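We modelled the chain as a single entity of 148 amino acids. Its sequence is:
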Amino acid sequence: MIRGWTAVYLRELFILKRRLAKLIPSWSVSPLLYLIAFGYAVGRHVEVGNHSYLEFLLPGLAAMASMTQAFSIIITPMAFLGGTFFPLSNLPGWGQRLLELLPLTHAAHAVRAAAFQEPARLIDFLVLIGVGGLCFLFAILSVNRAKA
């Protein structure tokens, strides 16, 4: 016997399986465009530290693509400013400090450190956990307000 939540779950899973062939290409368009435009066009002539620009770009794109789906209005400006496409060390000190306030800056640092098998900065994880906690709290308050 199928319980209520199981029926809903199976129905949603069936719908997802049917739509997955359409969803995956649409999710891939934006990262592929960035990869082509920045990785191959610009990246052939640029090196960041001991890595090629393409190696530098890929972890940032991975972090950006996973977050962009739901928050494109907020994420897109952060992606261009948060160290996804260029190292923050290229900016003046005040610009670096300002952009360290953006959560995507810390996500790009953490993903890039993992991709290069380097130690991650504790501050990156603390900021991401803090922002995630605030968003979770905001979601709970929003749901409770909607129920009332």
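As a brief sanity check on the tokenised model: The chain has five helices and two strands. The two ends are 34 Å apart (CA to CA).
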